[in-house]
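Reference record
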Amino acid sequence: MKITLQTLIVLCFCVNVSHAQHIGDIWVGITDSDQLKVTFVPECEILLTDSGSTIFPGWTNNIPGFDHIVTYDPNSTGEIYPMSGSHDIRLEIVSLTNFVNGDNFQGFHALNNVTFDIADEPGNSIELGSSNLHIHPIFFINNDENNNTWIYSVDPDWVGRVEVTFKLTDSGSYSDSEPFTIVFTNDEYMLADINHDNIVDMHDLAALGAQWDQTGCVLPDWCQGADINQDGQVSTGDLFWLAHKWLDTPEDCSLNGNDQ
C-alpha cells in the first residue's frame, strides 16, 4: 500500500515512538532451535482511542511495543533466548477477525512510522528490526471512507473488537514464530458489560432481558448495548456471550511483562 509524501512528512513530526523499555512490551527472542518466540503477549483488550487526526481518522494506539530479550532468564521469561547477529524481524498479519461475530475484518492497520511499512490484510508485514529491536508500531482502525490514504475503513459509528493474529518472520536464519493473538477495541467498556459498571453480573442480565427479542439493532447503540454480538437482534447468541463473560472485570494491560 502506498501513502502520499505529505502523509509521510506529517508522520515524521506528529507520531512519537517510545524507546524506553517498560512494562507492557512483548518480548522477542528465540528458542533453542532458532525459532522466533514471543512472551508477555497481552491477555486483555488493547483500547484504541480517538486519534483526533486527519492522518489517522479513527482510533489508534502504540501499545503493545516489541522489545528484544537481553539475557536468558528462565525464571521470569521461560525458555526464550536472546537473538544475535543481523536479522530482518517482521510482524506479519495472519488473520483479522471481528471478535464478536467471526467475520473477516477490514479497516485495521499496523504501521512502522520509521520505515512506513503498512500491514492491513493477511500476508502483509511491517519491519520490527534486527536482533536488538525495540519498537512501538502504530495500531489503527480507519473510520473515514473518504480518506484516500487508507484502502480499508469502517463506519464512523462503528464500535467493536478486532481479533488480530500475528506471527514474527525473519528473512534470515530464524524460523517463524508460533501465531499469537491480540484483541483491539475502540470501546472502553468490556464486552457484555451492558450497564458499564466494570463487572458482568445480574444487572447486565436484567438489561439484556429488557431488550429480549428486539430486532433491527444497529449502530451506534445496538439496542442499548444488549445486542452484544452485533448481529441485529437480541437473542440466545447474546445470552451466550454474557454467560461466557460472567463476573469478568477489567484487566490492567500495564501489568503484562517485566522491567529489565
Q: What stands out?
A: The chain is about 10% helix and 25% strand. The chain has a mean pLDDT of 84. Residues 5-187 form one domain. The longest strand covers residues 89-98.
